[in-house]
Specification:
With about 120 residues, this protein is mostly helical. The protein has helices spanning about 1-15, 20-30, 35-55, 90-95, 105-120; strands spanning about 70-75, 100-105. The protein has one domain (about 35-120). The chain has 5 helices and 2 strands. The protein has a two-stranded antiparallel sheet with strand order 1-2. The structure holds zinc ion. Zinc ion binds next to strand 2 and helix 5.
Length: about 120
């Protein structure tokens, strides 16, 4: 246990003393394993999206269409000056914390809502 702590401390000191080299090594590691990283990111993105759809009811609030490929997360009252959350994991947290703020719409219903809002 103590050896592990010592090793961790030694690593931390080395990284502090070799900032540029540390970054370079990490960048090289990323490029050598890029496909692995991308696959991991894609899987996390997909899993979060599936959870998001599950939480929001898995069908369009406008017409009931349930093909997951075309369902989109809609801000019920628009963005209202807020920044759009692009990362599904962050969006999922916001959806869970603010029930009623979001709904699922199919691409057609979302587009029609956009056009209706624009006319008013
Ligand atoms: Zn719809």
């Amino acid at each position: 246990m103590i050896d592990k702590q010592k090793a961790r401390e030694r690593g931390r000191r080395w990284r502090e003393a070799n900032r540029g080299r540390d970054r370079e090594l990490k960048r090289n590691y990323y490029h050598r394993n890029r496909e692995k990283f991308l696959a991991k990111f894609r899987k996390e993105h997909f899993d979060s999206r599936m959870k998001l759809l599950d939480v929001l009811g898995e069908e369009c609030s406008g017409c009931g269409f349930s093909d997951k490929r075309v369902l989109q997360v809609d801000h019920v009252n628009g963005l209202a000056g807020e920044k759009r959350l692009k990362k599904p994991s962050k969006l999922l947290l916001d959806v869970k914390n603010n029930p009623g703020k979001y709904q699922l719409l199919c691409a057609n219903c979302n587009w029609l809502k956009y056009l209706d809002d624009k006319q008013q």
